[in-house]
Amino acid sequence: MAKTYLVTGGAGFIGSNFVLYMLHKYDDIKIVNVDLLTYAGNLENLASIESDERHVFVQADIRDAQAIAALFEKYDIDYVVNFAAESHVDRSIVDPGAFASTNVMGTVNMLNCTRAAWEREDGSYPEGKKYLQVSTDEVYGSLSIDEPDTFFREDTPINPHSPYSASKASADLFVKAYGDTYGMPVNITRCSNNYGPFQFPEKLIPLMINNAEAHRELPVYGDGLNVRDWLYVEDHCKAIDLVLSNGRVGEVYNVGGHNERPNIFIVKKIIEETSRATGDEAITEDLIKYVQDRKGHDRRYGIAPDKIKAELGWEPETRFEDGIVKTIDWYLAHKEWMEHVTSGAYLEYYNKMYGVR
Ligand code: NAD
Ligand code: DAU
């Protein structure tokens, strides 16, 4: 039967990739896409589905109880997928309150509205409905680069360090509590670092591609040896689709691909591939600038995706070597998109973070 999805944050990086992936994969679904369109949300990401009647865009705040309740009244929602969040660690260090407000209180509001719409008088929920919280591996804290055989598993204790990860961990605990207390059908996915099209250039990979192309300095935090576990965004979208349809209710699923790389490796790879793709020999490692480290900088993230592999048959499909080339080619072919998102407030942000360019 045709399913109706309430997707929040679907004009952001992963959310827009998810909306496009789902509409491409399934003919008979409807997606109600709620996004506040903060600096990170961009309707251009959804331009290719502008006239697709299966997609309805609503500009609204996930903290707005009336607006969200109205959507549950208007549509018979089967699945809620909560992507909407303040997502950038550096911004959370400057303004933690915004992260508590959107990520924690926004999630609580989404849970309340979902419960009000779905819970029957006897406390049961209709078969097949599900609320999925899109979370992050950062809630587990940090691993050591000296112990490369240790990984985050679903039973690793929550131990966030940044205001961003603290807000995501807190939201996760509310989702768990709504499952435990009200019997709400919930899942939580905790994914590692994503890369791919439509990522806002405050994040490492698009920032480095954009700077390299313009011969601007490439700011590497600290010693450049912090490790992240990179996953191509479409693989994350596939995992979310699988957890929605087949994940066991109440479970947490870690999503990641044993693709751990030190930041300096990523930056050098981007230099090499951007130079190759543009034929520009001025894009060299001389652009690298080691800058002051991020406060409380987590050293290493690494996911063991054993559970999602064993239960749902999910595995990352895009090799990093292919994904990074695809990603660089995408940004080089979408300069208007980059110009659009880096105009206005971005410059102010960038200059404050890295010094006036
Ligand atoms: P993003 O910053 O690119 O997009 C967030 C979207 O949420 C934007 O479109 C923004 O307009 C919207 N939004 C923000 N506040 C809102 C509000 N109050 N109401 C409605 N919409 C609002 O983020 P992303 O990188 O696409 O991340 C999406 C989700 O995935 C987040 O929950 C994040 O914590 C999680 N996540 C991200 C990664 C990653 O590597 N990017 C990895 C794991 C998990
Ligand atoms: O692990 C999942 C998380 O990945 C998500 O939950 C977050 O929403 C997402 O932003 C991302 O967090 P990170 O902090 O890991 O990503 P970011 O791209 O900001 O940084 C990646 C690494 O690169 C990190 O070690 C910091 C470093 N870095 C980042 C920037 C922006 C630099 O060295 N220089 C930079 O200019």
TrEMBL record:
Question: Keywords, A to Z?
Answer: Lyase, NAD
MF terms per GO, please? dTDP-glucose 4,6-dehydratase activity
Q: Which reaction does it catalyse?
A: dTDP-alpha-D-glucose = dTDP-4-dehydro-6-deoxy-alpha-D-glucose + H2O
* Pfam families per UniProt: GDP_Man_Dehyd
Would the keyword Lyase be found if you checked this record's keyword annotation? yes
Query: SUPFAM superfamilies, from UniProt?
Result: NAD(P)-binding Rossmann-fold domains (SSF51735)
Keyword Secreted attached? no
Q: Return the EC number.
A: 4.2.1.46
Which positions fall inside the NAD(P)-binding domain?
Answer: 6-326
Name used for this protein in its record: dTDP-glucose 4,6-dehydratase
Species whose genome carries this gene: Parafannyhessea umbonata
Q: Which cofactor does it need?
A: NAD(+)
